[in-house]
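task queued by scheduler; priority normal; single chain, no ligands, no partner chains; default sampling; output format set to structure tokens
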Amino acid sequence: MAKTILLTQQEGVRVSARCGDHEVIFDWNEERGGTNQGMSPGELLCASLGACTVMTIVRYCRTVGIPVADVTAEAAYESDEKGTRADRYKIRVSLPGGAPGREKAIPRAAKRCYVEKTLENPPEIEIKIEGPGFE
């Protein structure tokens, strides 16, 4: 099933991403020529990985009857020496109520995160530029 997200340049490098009724703003900080009005694409990718991990854990816990509430996580990433790509992600999840008897199952369930599976097996990426002079 294909999903389409409409991306529109707003001001400078700031971009709006719209999917259905939802909108996210991307921007770079002032040092990179932006206005710092949204997360950078790299930050949002890291946040997506963290959010997917939390959502996957919560869904697993609910499926097996473990009550969960107030789950939080910290998502961090490190860039390569040139700053051209992320080369390490770290996700730290806090389950305030614990999960007695499921200490091994929950980390396995977390590995089912859609975003993590996508990053581990990168998809094909096709970019086509349209406009006068482009074929």
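post-processing summary
- The two ends are 27 Å apart (CA to CA).
- The beta strands are 6-9, 15-19, 22-26, 72-79, 86-94.
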